[in-house]
Structure formats: structure tokens, C-alpha cells
Amino acid sequence: MTPRFTVPDSKRDHIRGPANAPISLLEYGDYECPFCGQVQPVVREIQRRLGDNLCFAFRHFPLTNVHPHSEHAAEAAEAAAAQGNFWGMHETLFDNQDSLEDVDLAAYAAELGLDEVRLLREVEAHTYAGQVREDFKGGVRAGVNGTPTFFINGARYDGARGLEEMLAALTQEAGYPS
Amino acid sequence: MTGDGNYKDMYSKSRRGALPAGTKAPEFTLRSTPDQWLTLSELQGRPLILAFYPADWSPVCGDQMTLYNEMLGEFQEFDAELLGISVDGAWCHAAFAHDRKLHFPLLADFEPKGAVARDYGVYRDKDGVCERALFDLDPEGIIRWSYVSPLGVNPGANGILTALEQLKNEKAAVTT
Q1: Is B5 inside a domain boundary?
Q2: What is the reported pLDDT for A175?
Q3: Which domains does chain A have, with CATH numbers?
Q4: In A, residues 100-129, which contact B (CB 8 Å cutoff)?
């Protein structure tokens, strides 16, 4: 198991929070995966509670055969990142898991004030497919075998995905009193 | 995701271990579809991954096969082919593969039941299913790596890729 696949890398990842925060949480996820959708409110609340003590990163792990929209959705998030708003698109996609057609992706880009024509063009041209694939491959090497999979300070978290359980693991892992 | 404790407890431990690295992979001919058969030796000449799993439709297997399905491109980079094997019949496999949009063959170790799994040391007599076991074969049909996962745990694909990489590196070392 190579550590760099299990901890956020500020040089390549989309991260929230300070890169040198004492606690890191890395999620491998799929925008069309219902389990990933369910856990997003928990992830948001964790970020709110831990504030600057947490560095959160998200990597793509689309299971494209079972989730036919997941690849374009992931690439749309990357296309939004190229226009400076990864996290806006990230949140929007998870909030609208049932509406991930290309026309929806373009509409979300417009809502976020992005250039939707460019975004759609880049999605159709698979401009960011390589990046998404790199995330996926890294996940496989890290031992990801389904979504969502979380790593806390580099160690895979296999516990329950409730707020209390995850917060306890996060604070314990970093040696913080919970 | 990985299965829960109850699922694991449903199954007994197998008596024998899986065939280890260095062993010649036992020959077999199994149905790959209701009207097609596949013989192991016909696939020699390229690396092969045999993924034995307990049953179609069970949650962990589904995820495991779903993951491998997404990995076919990576396996192809090593020129490797993947075969799934369980004791389910060919029609069951066909329905499962259709539902999960699987793009690799599922072989039916159905009659005599589990005969191939027994040859590889990964049949669970008490339960009547295969272990969740992985074998990486080299182009000559020699087992180069084998691994048995707890039944309820998805072994992922990292071990397979590591073994394929090693095989590729060895080959490169021989040719240079």
C-alpha cells in the first residue's frame, strides 16, 4: 500500500482546509452512488466542526458500468475546477444525483456562473478523463473496492459512516480528545 | 462495501489451502455461456486472472465483480484476461452479467459441482460454494500468486495488479 494514495496531496487534489492540518480525510467517491450521496451531509458537518484542524480531499472513483452518468459527472467537476469552482460543482452534483444528464451538468455550470458551453465541450471531449482515471487507479492501489471509501490520516476507515462514529475516529486518529 | 459479521459467520472455513505460487494451474473446461465452453489451456500465452467467488448476486461479490469490471482496461495494459468462477449455473451467470453489465466471462463450476474449485483447493465442502480466491497465472499457465480472502470481504484489485506488475518486470529483466 503506497501512502500517497491514501493521503491528500495538495499538488494534485482538490482540498478543503489547510494542507498541513493535523487531521486528513480523503474520500474516494462517485457522484451517482447513493451511498456517497447519503454520507455527504456527514462530510460537510465534519468539515464544519473540525474547521482548520481538517484537510479534506475528494478523489473520483466512478463505477461507470453500474452508474452510467458517473464518468461525465466526475469530468464535469474537473471541468468546473478548471474554471475555479470544483467544490461548487461537487456539492451541486451530490445534491442532484438523479439528474446527471449532460444537459443537467451544463445547467449546473450556468447556475454556478461558469461558462457552460466550455464545460460541456470539455466533458464531451473527455478533457479531464485522464485525471479521473488517475484518481481511480490510485484508489485501486490504495485498496478502495467500493464507494465511498475514506482514509483518515492515511489509514482506511472501515467503520460506520455516521457523524459521531466518524468524528470519533477522526479526533482519535489525530490524538485529539473527542 | 465489505459484508457484515453475520454474513461471514454463515460460512465455515475451508479445509485445504489454495494452490500456492509455483504450481501448474490445473486444466479445466467450463461453460462460459449456456452454449459455449472455455478451456484454460486455450488461453495460454498471456497472463490470466482467475477470480473464484461464492455466488452471483450476493452483495460483496457484486461489488467485487463490479470493481473488476471497471478495471478491465488496467488488466489489458498487462495483456491479462480475467475470468470469474463460481458454482452458479450458466443461466444464472448470464442474468447476473447482464444485470451488472459485466464485460468478462463468468464460468460455471456447476457440474460436477465445484470440481474446478476443488482442484484449486478453494472449495468449501460444508457450504457448497467456492472461496473468495484469486489466482494470477503467467503465460505458461503457472500460478504466480494466489490469495484467499475472508468470504465477506472484498479483496479489491491491488494484489492482482501487484502480481501482474511483478510478472511484467520479471519478463523485462529476462529480455534485457
Answers
A1: no
A2: 67
A3: 3-173 (3.40.30.10)
A4: none
The pair phi, psi for residue B175, each rounded to 5°, is: -75, -25
Question: Is pLDDT at B9 greater than 50 in this prediction?
Answer: no
Backbone angles phi, psi at A2, to 5 degrees: -95, 125
The answer to whether B156 contacts A136, with C-beta atoms less than 8 Å apart, is no
Residue B141 in domain: yes
A33 part of contact set with chain B, CB < 8 Å: no
Q: Return the pLDDT at B137.
A: 97
Q: Is residue B31 part of a domain?
A: no
A141 touches chain B (CB under 8 A): yes
Our count of domains for chain B comes to 1
Q: Do the chains contact at A140 and B69, CB–CB below 8 Å?
A: no
Q: What is the complex's ipTM, to 2 decimals? A: 0.80
Cβ pair B48, B80 in contact under 8 A = yes
Phi-psi region of A138 (alpha: psi -120 to 50; beta: other; left: phi over 0): alpha
Residue-number span of the structural domain to which B105 is assigned: 14-26+43-175
Interchain contact A63–B (C-beta under 8 A): yes
pTM over 0.90: no
List CB contacts (< 8 A) between B100 and chain A: 65-66
At B136, which CATH number?
Answer: 3.40.30.10
Answer whether residue A99 shows pLDDT above 70: yes
* pLDDT tens readout for residues B17-51: 899 999 999 999 999 999 999 999 999 999 999 99
| pLDDT higher than 90, residue B172 | no
Q: Does B70 touch chain A (CB under 8 A)?
A: yes
> Is residue B7, in this structure, part of any structural domain at all?
no
Helix (H), strand (E) at residue A149: strand A149-152
Chain A residue numbers with beta carbons less than 8 Å from the beta carbon of B1 are 35, 145-146, 149
